[in-house]
Amino acid sequence: MTQPQPVTPGTAAAHSDPYTLYAELVADRPFGYDADSGLWVAAGAAAVSEVLTHPACLVRPSNEPVPRGVLDTPAGDVFGELVRMIDGAPQARRKHVLHKALNTVTEKRVIALAAEQASEATDWRDLQFGVPARVMAAVLGLGGDVPAQAARLIGEFVRCVPASATAEDQAAAAAAAARLLELLGPYLRARGGGLIGELVRLAARDGWRETAPLLANVIGLLSQTYDATAGLVGNTLLALARHGRPDDLAAFVDEVLRHDAPIQNTRRFVADATALVGHHVPTGSTILLLLAAANRDPLANPDPHTFRPGRADPQVFTFGQGAHRCPGQAMATAITIGVAATVTKTPSHEGYLPSPNARIPVLKGQFR
Ligand code: HEM
What we know:
Largest sheet: 5 strands, mixed
Bound molecules: protoporphyrin IX containing FE
Helix content: 40-55%
Number of domains: 1
Distance between the termini: 34 Å
């Protein structure tokens, strides 16, 4: 018989119960060095906030801005231009354009697109991964069978993102990135409608004329949607099975985001030795930020382990904070509302997909 794997801060995201460990860390070591993994671990809400907003904590190690395995490949070229993967003024400028463009998309339209796509989904996996990717592709203005192709290729591209990516993952990601660049390039040049057209217009107005960063960040929007929204859809359907259908689905999804975060952690890299949360953190340190633990810190959210939609003033860390805060919260929530409103069957689940940071349940049971 196989023994259950021990839960550690770095592997908790896909474990059946990460929350007992998180509660212990929040109580006993809200910020500290974990000798087993060689990582600094931030679990308490105040510690997570301090690290996310500290200028010495960067999104990539300064000696490896792009993972070595994809350097000088199309995947590396895309990776190195993503707002998610760069810091400083270029990040702020690109992010501003992304934000403005995303703000032109209405919640009502996204809910309707998600409901339409959900009614045509083929199985649970397609519902979790395919539907959000096809909705995002449709919002971007991609037509014909391009949304379906893009959805498939994004699944390959994201394989290069985790630190655990193998040479095979990186080769698959490089091939997918090359194909995505070919597929999406014409849309940018055509300056058509949809979110891509909006991005091109806003970027030109901002004096930002190179196409490569824009194209990379369109791929970034698709890839950021992928795992995270699959997790939110899955965790919401499981919460509905557990707690029943609510009157206010939006408040319900917001509480799923806090209580069972689809993205459980992120990382920061310390470029220059600095004092953080009262500790001396040396140059070259990696910090694991347990966003899902901070959501359940009683100092941030009273009675944090209780699932209670409509909480007063919830403190939610699931979308990060500071310069890199996720611009896709409204999009992800609207997609999930559209899907959850359409699905009538109740899934069960069999564990979680292996992932260092996403919590994506493997849904089972009759689909239609
Ligand atoms: C439930 C779904 C989602 C969750 C939980 C989530 C979570 C996050 C988190 C935690 C970050 C910040 C990472 C960090 O600071 O280290 C982030 C960044 C980002 N997300 Fe999301 N995300 C979700 C969906 C989306 C969607 C649908 C989009 C696209 C519209 C999106 C676009 C982005 C982008 C572009 C960034 C990079 C922002 C930056 O670095 O400045 N996300 N997301």
